[in-house]
Amino acid sequence: MSNAATTTGRAPSVYVPSAEALATVLAPGDRPARPSALGASLTFGWRALLKIKHVPEQLFDVTAFPIIMVLMFTYLFGGALADSPRAYLQFFLPGIMVTSVVMITMYTGIGLNTDIEKGIFDRFRTLPVWRPAALVGMIFGDVLRYVLAAVVILGVGLVLGFRPDGGLMGVAAGIGLLVIFSFAFSWVWTFFGLVLRSEKSVMGVSMMVLFPLTFLSNVFVEPSTMPGWLQAFVKANPITHLVAAVRAAMAGESDATNTMWLLLWSAGFVVVFGTLTMYRYNRR
Amino acid sequence: MNKRTTGPAIEAEGLTRSFGKTRALAGMDLQVPAGTVYGLLGPNGAGKTTAVRVLATLLRPDGGRARVFGHDVVAEADKVRARVSLTGQYASIDEDLTGVENLVLLARLLGLRKPAARERAEQLLAAFGLTEAGDRQVKKYSGGMRRRIDIAASILNTPDLLFLDEPTTGLDPRSRNQVWEIVRAVVSHGTTVLLTTQYLDEADQLAGRIAVVDHGRVIAEGTPGELKSSVGSGTVHLRLRDAAQRSDAEKVLQAALGVPVQLEADPLALTARVVGEGNDLAATEQAARALADLSRAGIVVDDFSLGQPSLDEVFLALTDHPAVPADERDEELEAAR
Predict the structure, then answer these.
(1) B47 pLDDT band (50/70/90 cuts)?
(2) Which one-letter DSSP state was computed for residue B69?
(3) CB-defined contacts A:B, below 8 A
(4) What pLDDT does B325 receive?
(5) In what order do the strands lie in the sheet with B161-165?
(6) What is the complex's ipTM, to 2 decimals?
(7) CA B143, CA A10: separation in Å to the nearest integer?
(8) What's B233-308's CATH class?
(9) Which of A30, A38, A46, A126 to probe the B interface (max B CBs under 10 A)?
(10) Cα separation of A95 and A99, whole Å?
(11) CATH 3.40.50.300 domain span(s) along chain B
């Protein structure tokens, strides 16, 4: 790591504002046309990529964390729940992929909260661009992180013996569904990132939501072994639909019912939490 | 002088805004003419930042209304945004990104294509003496450089109105002078600048008109000259060689200036406020005469200074309470989010 001193290393030559130089930049030019909604969002997405470039440490949570999750649960439960870790993995890998990626979505809220804390959003909010662009762009950047995490988990799975029947297409379709859901689910966290006062409280709320949501599902075991009231919850849980759909896709089958539910849930998250987020974002 | 705009840049009437129990704005009225630097002067917690945030469309007022170039800041926020820029008290720049990246990002968001955005960024960096630092992350910049890149980002689109919220707080004198030069250049090219500051000196240097803000209200308004003469043009500080001469000096000064003279705790020191009102002579002229009278009376003066009234003195004169920095600002910022 470079020496991250707080100020410049060498003494810079003294800056003397020159009237001519300032005159050239202050001459009012033609105002360019306002960028399109997509253009502005992509530009904000580019900002997210630049941040990854400058602070690559932030990829730790999408690489190391998923690897640990896969290894830990495969060997912890594999022997007990299936004949062997390898056998369990055929069932479990799509589920742990969903769990890890959905858990990573909470960093969207934490990142937004930090950005606002630092003041940069004051500038974004005074720009005459499509209002949701800053947030959409931020989530675009996060989508890249989701894909990366999914690929890392898939890699670890393949090494450990996961063999998806769906082949490349099936796996790609599964990851695609997961990314669609995660994009939609991120809007829950942008809302909390705006409403809650500190990074810590965002983290706290995220954990409180994510743990029950991911564990009380069909990720780890078949719901048929659970008591009836719990089965009812598991059945309604969007994560269950997502896992079922991803599993089917990776196995080379298609699960139209669960895929439909998952897309409905995704649309619902965007509509409800996207609206709430923009309401909070505009009204402060 | 300003062809881009006619009419006032800002008109605000009775703006109010509360954060919990704190009334940050308690009925603020403002009239800012276009093409000038307008100073909002007041201590921390006076409501300056809240006023700027409302006018820059970042915060909705609870009551009252404000128009920027004729556009309502709430109903026509987008039209206002197209014409204003804000340099906040805290970095409105991404510290993780380099100087170039920050400017290119914002230029692209304003609609420039990539090559044009790049060119504009290079131009701005050159004009602000940051070419060399362009490829470094902003978090590695010094305080003065940070301010400059922040202002550079704010004039990317040559706004018609630029908000500068305490642009020199925390800067060393040299960096402060650089910022002042930049502000003068910006306004000479037709941009209206609304500047908040805690320093009378700064408002005096830059602003054509000043509004003194206290408890969310404008308590005095005028040109720097008008404000100062309402308060007194300054304070004379004297230090004598011999403490025994102090009572004589007091009499001489009182006669020369026609104001009460204060004896300081230091047995050698005296101070007196030079009042502009009811006296045609400039403060310096009065002080010079007083000094001559002292020397004629055989009183030896070791040290003499004529200072501008401090913000404290302005406040004392206008409100009968000193400009105590309230701890409201943090609350305000906290609640503003």
Answers:
(1) very high
(2) T
(3) 156
(4) 52
(5) B84-87, B161-165, B192-197, B37-41, B209-214, B217-222
(6) 0.83
(7) 15
(8) alpha beta
(9) A126
(10) 6
(11) 10-229+327-336
- Chunked mean pLDDT (size 10), chain A, 284 residues: 46 72 79 89 94 88 87 84 83 91 89 85 89 92 92 93 91 95 94 89 91 89 87 92 94 91 95 94 77
Least confident range of A130-134, A159-163, B1-5, B55-59: B1-5
Q: How far is B221 from chain A (nearest CA, A)?
A: 28
Lowest mean pLDDT among A27-36, A195-204, B88-97, B119-128: A27-36
Subunit contact A29:B158, Cβ cutoff 8 A? yes
Phi, psi dihedral angles at B85 (to 5 degrees): -145, 155
| Neighbouring-strand partners of residue B221 | B211
What pLDDT is recorded for position B320?
Answer: 63
Is B69 in contact with B83 (CB distance < 8 Å)?
yes
Structure tokens at B35: 């093409």
DSSP category for residue B322? -
CA dist B47 and B59 (Å) reads 13
Give the rounded percent of residues in chain B with a pLDDT score beyond 90: 57
Whole-number Å distance between alpha carbons of B290 and B253: 6
Of A12, A44, A120, the CB nearest to B92: A120
How is residue B167 written in tokens? 């642009």
Structure tokens at B6: 């006619």
Partner residue facing B337 (CB), from A8, A19, A284: A284
Parse chain A into domains and list their residue ranges.
37-282
Alpha helices in chain B (DSSP H): 48-55, 77-81, 99-109, 114-127, 143-154, 173-188, 200-206, 224-231, 246-257, 283-296, 311-319, 328-336
- One-character DSSP codes across B112-154: --HHHHHHHHHHHHHHTT-TTTTTSBGGGS-HHHHHHHHHHHH
**B110–A127 C-beta distance less than 8 A:** yes
Q: Report pLDDT for B332.
A: 47
- Reported as a single tens digit per residue, the pLDDT across B241-252 is 998 999 999 999
CA distances, B117 to each of A28, B106, B120, B307 (Å): 15, 8, 5, 47
> Cβ A22–B141 below 8 Å, yes or no?
no
**Yes or no, beta carbons of B85 and A126 under 8 Å apart:** yes
Rounded to whole angstroms, the Cα distance separating B258 from B216 reads 36
Residues A132, A121 contacting (CB under 8 angstroms): no
Angle at A138 between CA A137 and CA A141, to 5 degrees: 90
Residues 6+ apart with CB under 8 A from A96: A66, A69, A70, A73, A74, A153, A219
Report residue B29 as tokens.
Answer: 């009225």
At the topology level, CATH places domain B10-229+327-336 in Rossmann fold (3.40.50)
* Helix or strand (DSSP H, E) at A274: helix A256-282
CB under 8 Å to A52, separation ≥6 — which residues? A58, A59, A141, A144, A145
